[in-house]
Write a structure and sequence with these properties.
alpha/beta, two-stranded antiparallel ribbon, globular, 341 residues, 17% strand
């Protein structure tokens, strides 16, 4: 297809030579359209019970499950580097996992205890918690099952509301429902208001796809074995759909979400762009475990330049319109950016 030639002579060669502005480092910086800083990063971490516990996540090189005492220095580094938010994902003792995931509502459970201590020691570090049942259920699904194995929406939402309240009462700054149950944002917002927890923010996983890129994460939180060969396609979105994502985003904003998220990240940058263009709302993306693992593995094999692809991938989110990125690269990226400053 032949492109239509511009009517503006200034946009024609040789009057316009785009390479002129690319010749020097300083001129390239002058016309840089997007930037990346530690302010755009959220660091997801895996939390273990006990003390002095550190377990490598084999499928995520460089990532460890940590007990709270070992997580505290990580939180300190986030503060030192200017990373605004630490996101907690629990690794629950299998003995505590039940079909209904009710351990998620325990005020003395792993997550609420960690939140209280982190906010005590780092009051100016934002703490975000996952609102979902899959780390707590014996079957690995994000909700309560009926006799046929179907996820019950409203019954699950009732537990999610209690989970979110438990986390908010512990002092968390952001609750992040990642379950994809219909109507749960409105129910959680209503409950927070009724409890006068008006400052608790909601980051909604609004467009979360039933993706094959989540495998290493499920290994990390211990839900992969429980889930087995089952999938989550009756509640997470179809990878082929784009318009549906906009409807999901609209619903969550109308129900009281302060921020919305697209997950996964790089394979869904078109969704990020559409969401930002249509809603002009705080929009985030999750560079998920599979994305991280691919880049790490390729870099370890010498096939890619680690730092270059790390920063390029994160800039891609910013270029697509994301205000911030949940990424396991957060510490490494923030260190890199600080060294280059």
């Amino acid at each position: 297809m032949k492109m239509k030639q511009s009517a503006n002579p200034l946009l024609q060669f040789p009057a316009h030579r785009p390479r002129r502005m690319r010749r020097n480092d300083w001129s390239r910086r002058m016309m840089q359209e997007n930037s990346l800083s530690a302010n755009n990063l959220i660091y997801p971490v895996f939390l273990l019970d006990g003390k002095n516990q550190s377990e490598a996540v084999v499928s995520m090189p460089g990532v460890n499950r940590l007990s709270l005492d070992l997580l505290l220095p990580v939180a300190q580094e986030c503060v030192d580097l200017g990373i605004p938010v630490l996101a907690l994902f629990p690794v629950i003792d299998p003995a505590l996992k039940m079909p209904d995931g009710k351990e998620s509502t325990n005020p003395n459970g792993l997550v609420p205890k960690a939140v209280r201590e982190l906010k005590k020691q780092f009051p100016n570090l934002g703490i975000m918690t996952d609102v979902a049942l899959d780390p707590y259920t014996s079957h690995g699904q994000d909700g309560v099952l009926d006799s046929a194995g179907y996820i019950l929406n409203d019954e699950t939402t009732a537990i999610l509301v209690q989970q979110a309240l438990t986390q908010a009462e512990a002092g968390v700054d952001i609750v992040a429902p990642s379950d994809m149950m219909d109507g749960r944002i409105g129910k959680i917002r209503e409950a927070l208001e009724q409890k006068d927890l008006i400052h608790t923010m909601i980051m909604a996983y609004s467009a979360k796809y039933a993706s094959a890129f989540y495998g290493p994460f499920r290994d990390a939180v211990g839900s992969a074995k429980n889930l087995g060969k089952a999938d989550k396609k009756t509640y997470q979105m179809d990878a082929s759909n784009s318009d549906e994502a906009l409807r999901e985003i609209a619903l969550d904003i109308s129900e009281g979400a302060d921020m919305v998220m697209v997950k996964p990240g790089m394979p869904y940058l078109d969704i990020v762009r559409r969401v930002k263009d249509v809603f002009e709302y705080p929009t985030y993306a999750y560079q998920v475990s599979g994305e991280y693992a691919m880049l790490k593995a390729a870099a370890q094999n010498g096939w890619l330049d680690h730092d270059a692809v790390m920063i390029e991938s994160l800039l891609a989110f910013r270029r697509a319109g994301a205000d911030g990125v949940l990424t396991y690269f957060a510490l490494e990226a923030a260190r890199y950016l600080k060294a280059k400053a």
